[in-house]
Specification:
The structure is a homodimer of 395-residue chains. The first copy, chain A, has twelve helices and 15 strands. In chain A, the strands form four sheets. A seven-stranded mixed beta sheet of chain A has the order 2-8-7-6-5-3-4, with helices on both faces. In chain A, strands 11-12-15-14 form a four-stranded antiparallel beta sheet, with helices on one face. In chain A, strands 1-13 form a two-stranded parallel sheet. The first copy, chain A, has 395 residues and is an alpha/beta fold. The longest helix of chain A has 21 residues. In chain A, helix 3 runs parallel beside helix 9 and helix 9 crosses helix 10. Chain A folds into two domains: 123 residues, Aspartate Aminotransferase, domain 1 (Alpha-Beta Complex); 256 residues, Aspartate Aminotransferase, domain 2. The interface between A and B is large, with 85 and 86 residues.
């Protein structure tokens, strides 16, 4: 992979704005658009009822599984097709066979996608949810692991943790956490919304039990797509919560009141019933995986994020929130005298630069947040820093 | 509504085949296609990250709620946006606060969309699932109601029932069942896959507690769309199972471990995170609801189904399965000497006529099945009966 302009030509959305918010939604590549357009024409002009209708949906879901697996260091049977990171989180969290009094640990810098299903099992199954304070998620990785280990009791069953925090941007020591958790027979369910895409992943090496990501963010797929990885030997640790076509096998035993779940992680599919979205997700995923490659992508993200960190740090009146030693693709910061919402609105309105802000929960920072992905350029950063300085001049 | 040819011109899919399988997927109307195309172009060329991104998703979901509500005799706050009938069934069935030993009743002619979530609560929560044999679902409606009433015990909490059976095609006496069930303080969750669209509905009059339908079948929307109606005063009888953007309100109480569900049935949304699908569903639903109207649609369905029943009954060697007094839009039948799968394959391959077949579960009939919708014509029926006779001639 070489010429960034050739890559950007495949992403018309990146010319609509200075695109610094992939953490919400990435730009759609032309290959995905074309795949979707083809399916949409088919849906209009062809009867969606030929004998290949359902088999073709199944094949398309398997194409997604293959493309995702090759990007994250997994095998296709470990991948479920979902409609969002949150889908995957609730499937994994609600899927555990909770007993009243069981405990679930999560960090203080989680997204509602991990928090709300945790509160749901608290409410529905009497699970105790404990919040482990790891500050901004930076510092010595051993301290993060130790904080969780101290909170583990004989009743602890699961750790819910972001691989990269959506507020502070910190990349957490997932592999080390998993090793520690498994030593205590505790499962780890990870929110990969901000890591699936920008971080070169080898999930078998990390060893995590469940890992839920979005299709529309760093993978640049259609909205309403996602994936859930469940480690092959942990599939049986989770019950199905949702059941639909393709998630069960063969004929139901009607009077026996039983059925067999589909083999592997396909039993956890929550989406993939629309060929437009599934074809778009498969095409976008194949493109980033095969054409760009996870090593090129993650290296480029590191370069651009490093540069952004440096340039933002140099600005007067800017305080960095993201711990420097834990940067992935997100950088959170504050500008003296202007709130995150105001900065976002003015950068968009006056400078054509799209970023976002994160809102304060009790133990989360309030901040402006920029996303750096492989298609971003030094010029994008120039527009950002000039915009900030211009706004500072008018404060 | 008058000229059927003008209506058919809006549905290019109906010229691809003799379209007699709406019960699987309907043809997509041009207005829905255009709405989807517009959203797809926006996704390609515009950054999907402006400040209106999430509010616009919420507005589109509300457009779906409004269009659906006006078609089924409900109010928008009673409608959840889902991705399938099965979505709605599992949300309602898993959402009940089951205690071990509680009982759930279902008929012998249910679809896996109602059966599998029932077996899931059996497995996960120790619920007893009892099958009530109502034969083909025809005969005196009072007998159907009585069969269920005899099965009710003090532990019965829920009846799971199709409004129109996908195998026998029988329209069941839902209103009478609901009246009886409510007298015993039992909830009724209905599978509307084969009734939402072809049957003129007034859900407030029927009184059903939860009613789950598909977008892509009789409503002719995109695949992967659906709706769940939950009666306003029963929303609180169901817990959330899935939680995503828009299904909760405001800020989570992080350390308190709690949150507030969204108002009304919106808390049960499982889909609506893709503007292409949501815009397509809203456009297709508005079209059938406002341009065609449920009275015209249901009258036309009755006419066409009546005609189909008559013409099929007249054929030698054809045995009707659907009880004549309970016909809605589906007609199931068998042809001597040729199985449903073979008949479907030969009608499609040799005569350009698309029907489907239903498979035998223990207490369900095996049969060929045709769907009659508003866009079907006497010519479609001619092609069907000629095809059958031609195949009979070669047996």
């Amino acid at each position: 992979m070489a010429d960034i302009n050739i890559v950007r030509d495949q992403l018309p959305g990146v010319t609509d704005t200075v695109y610094l918010n992939t953490g919400t939604c990435g730009p759609l590549p032309l290959v995905a658009y074309e795949a979707m357009r083809e399916e949409m024409s088919h849906d209009l002009t062809k009867a969606r009822i030929d004998s290949d209708h359902f088999p073709s949906l199944g094949r398309k879901r398997n194409e997604v599984r293959e493309a995702v697996a090759s990007y994250v260091g997994a095998v296709p049977s470990e991948i479920a097709v979902t409609s969002s990171t949150t889908d995957g989180m609730y499937v994994a969290i609600l899927g555990y066979r909770w007993q009243a009094g069981d405990e679930l640990l999560m960090s203080n810098i989680e997204h509602p996608g991990g928090m709300v299903p945790s509160f749901l099992v608290k409410r529905r199954f009497g699970v105790r949810v404990k919040v482990v304070d790891i500050g901004l998620g930076g510092g010595d990785p051993a301290d993060v692991v130790a904080a969780f280990e101290r909170a583990i009791t004989p009743r602890t069953r699961m750790i819910v943790i972001s691989h990269v925090s959506y507020t502070t941007g910190a990349k957490l020591p997932l592999k080390e956490l998993v090793t520690m958790a498994h030593a205590h027979d505790v499962l780890v369910v990870a929110d990969a919304a901000q890591s699936y895409g920008p971080v070169a992943l080898d999930l078998h090496d990390i060893g995590v039990d469940a890992y839920a990501g979005s299709g529309q963010k760093w993978m640049c797929g259609p909205d309403g797509t996602g994936m859930l990885y469940v480690r092959a030997d942990r599939v049986g640790d989770f019950e199905q919560t949702f059941v639909a076509g393709g998630t069960t096998m063969g004929t139901l035993d009607y009077f026996g009141g039983s059925y067999a779940p589909a083999l592997g992680a396909a039993r956890f599919d929550t989406a993939g019933r629309n060929t437009i979205l599934t074809a778009g997700q498969a095409a976008a995923t194949r493109w980033i995986s095969s054409e760009l490659g996870k090593d090129w992508v993650s290296t480029r993200v590191q370069e651009m994020a490093g540069l952004a960190y440096e340039e933002l740090s140099r600005l007067k009146g800017v305080t960095m929130v993201t711990p420097k030693e834990a940067v992935a693709g997100l950088i959170a910061f504050n500008v003296d005298g202007i709130s995150g919402p105001d900065l976002s609105a003015r950068l968009a309105g006056e400078h054509g630069v799209t970023i976002r802000y994160v809102t304060k929960y009790i133990n989360n920072p309030e901040a402006a947040r920029v996303s750096l992905h492989y298609f971003n350029t030094p010029e994008d950063l120039g527009a950002l820093t000039e915009g900030i300085q211009s706004i500072q001049g008018t404060l």
